[in-house]
Every structure is written in structure tokens, then in C-alpha cells.
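User: I'll paste a sequence; please echo it back and then give the predicted structure.

Assistant: Echoing your sequence first, then the prediction.
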Amino acid sequence: MTTEAKAKIADLLPNPLGVQSETITLVGPPSDLLGAIVESRDVDPVVMGAGHGKSGVRRLGSNCHKMVRSAPCPVLIVR
């Protein structure tokens, strides 16, 4: 599943400017996994998208809130 997810993400995120990036696919609670990646690497800043709630309205979810509160670097939330 992770190999397939990586291929789909690569198709969605073209890199015409040649910016260095890395796609990491993991399975588990998003805020815990992202927090561990941020702590183990030199990450600055974290950019996250606000999700869709059950109502379909974009709002800040619990993963965004957890990252804003716990990340050791700036966190930008895109709505």
C-alpha cells in the first residue's frame, strides 16, 4: 500500500523547479508519526492542510492542533 501511495503522491506533486523534497509514507496516527519525523530530522517549517470534517466543511482537525502545540518548529496550516 505504501508503494502505491508514494506513486500517487508523486503524480500529484510535480517538481518543475527542482526543489529538494522527500515523500515518506507511514501507517499510524498522523500526528504521532509526523511529530516523530519532525523531531528526528532538521525540519523547518511544517506545512499541513486543514482537513474536511464529517460535515464536509474545512476546519482545523485534531492532527493540526496537536502539531501546532507540540512541534519544535513553526507550523503553517493551509485551509
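The radius of gyration is 14 Å. Helices lie at 2-12, 30-40, 62-70.
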